[in-house]
Amino acid sequence: MKYALAVHGAPYSSNAAEHALSFIEALQACGHDIERVFFFHEGVYQGLNGQVTPQSLHDNALQARWAAVAAQGIELAVCIASGIKRGVVDSAEQERYDLPAATLHTDFTLVGLGQLIAAIDNADRYVEFPA
Which residues form the catalytic set? Predict the structure, then answer.
């Protein structure tokens, strides 16, 4: 079975990412595929480069876990509209808006909402992880 996922919660202020990552691991253990992980609203902060894991959560560095997901060929898609509003931009948007730096982590990609719709259309199941 093929799944599309959406993460709405910010890292470390919500359990959305932890739940999504655990769900991905469980799906893969059962032989299922992940079409795409889409980050929306506050979830776009998952793709913010330069995050520092809180000391109390040192064993649960979310960005390292997302990097492992990306290394398996699963697209980590950050909503461009939500990202720009929150300062999560790639080099093209940095240049377009004349910002001082690109802030999107290299394992993530800025995409439009159409990518979420395409993922849902291609998947058998769609699961959201709210904030």
Answer: 79
